[in-house]
């Protein structure tokens, strides 16, 4: 899931203050904490109040999209509304905002969120945590399922630095575990310390440069076209 944080209401208002009618689009996809219809309505009310303090009557409507990052779902949900509105405010992550600007190209979509990271919800620890940085060359098979790229503050690939104390990382003042101590414990538990001592070359950033493109699996999306081609 994409972990987001809502922008300051004043910053959102600043982006849309010159418009009279805005569409506020929540996203029911993986964006966390939830940014769906209820959050869209609350944002609309806050923006309306903010506009009133400036002597302005802002009209708004809240909707939600199943997944803003899917072009077909985004287009079919958004297009029936766009003629009526001057601008869109998206509560999705950055992917959703870019997608709405693509599928509804004659109206600007503004972001209401800051996208923080792709992460997991670890309710036991009461955190959303970044467990993977999508580096394009997964090492988890050598590290007992704990990622040193996302988990180590210095992105070290060959064991801990000198800053670990009692299993905690110096970065952040010993508040988070050292990823490499966790990796050691995990590999030891499964009698796989042979993996711990492997040499891992420096990260190859070519596998994670932007913009990244991967063809969508033909078997999955283009199956109909393929069948028609064969006829
Ligand atoms: S090594 Fe870490 S950052 Fe890279 S793909 Fe695997 S989990 Fe993600
Ligand atoms: S203490 Fe551990 S997690 Fe922190 S930077 Fe050093 S090796 Fe990485």
Tell me the CATH superfamily of the largest domain. Answer: Response regulator
How many discrete structural domains? 2
Strand residue percentage? 15-25%
Radius of gyration over all CA atoms, rounded? 23 Å
Q: What overall geometry do the principal axes of the alpha carbons give?
A: elongated
What is the CATH C level class of the largest domain, in words?
A: Alpha Beta
Query: From the coordinates shown, what is the CATH architecture of the largest domain?
Result: 3-Layer(aba) Sandwich
Major sheet strand order: 3-2-4-5
Question: Helix and strand layout, with pairings?
Answer:
Elements: E1 2-6, H1 9-16, E2 21-27, H2 37-53, E3 59-65, H3 71-78, E4 87-90, H4 94-103, E5 109-111, E6 113-118, E7 120-122, E8 127-129, H5 148-151, E9 164-165, E10 168-169, H6 179-189, H7 193-196, H8 218-221, H9 223-230
Helix pairs in contact: 1-2, 3-4
Bound molecules: iron/sulfur cluster (SF4) (2 copies).
């Amino acid at each position: 899931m994409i972990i987001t944080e809502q922008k300051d209401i004043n910053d959102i208002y600043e982006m849309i203050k010159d418009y009279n009618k805005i569409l506020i689009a929540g996203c029911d996809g993986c964006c966390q904490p939830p940014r769906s219809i209820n959050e869209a309505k609350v944002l609309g009310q806050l923006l309306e109040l903010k506009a009133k303090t400036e002597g302005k009557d802002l009209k708004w409507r809240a909707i939600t999209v199943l997944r803003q990052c899917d072009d077909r779902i985004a287009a079919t949900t958004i297009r029936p509304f766009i003629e009526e509105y001057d601008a869109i405010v998206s509560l999705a992550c950055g992917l959703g905002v870019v997608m709405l600007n693509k599928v509804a190209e004659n109206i600007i979509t503004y972001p209401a969120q800051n996208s923080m990271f792709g992460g997991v919800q670890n309710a036991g620890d009461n955190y959303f945590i970044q467990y993977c940085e999508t580096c394009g060359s997964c090492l988890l098979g050598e590290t007992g399922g704990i990622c040193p790229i996302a988990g180590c503050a210095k992105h070290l690939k060959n064991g801990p630095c000198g800053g670990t104390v009692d299993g905690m990382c110096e970065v952040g003042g010993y508040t988070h575990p050292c990823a490499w101590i966790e990796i050691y414990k995990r590999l030891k538990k499964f009698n796989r310390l042979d993996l711990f001592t492997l040499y891992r070359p420096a990260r190859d950033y070519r596998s994670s440069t932007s913009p990244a493109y991967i063809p969508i699996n033909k078997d999955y999306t283009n199956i109909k076209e393929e069948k028609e081609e064969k006829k």
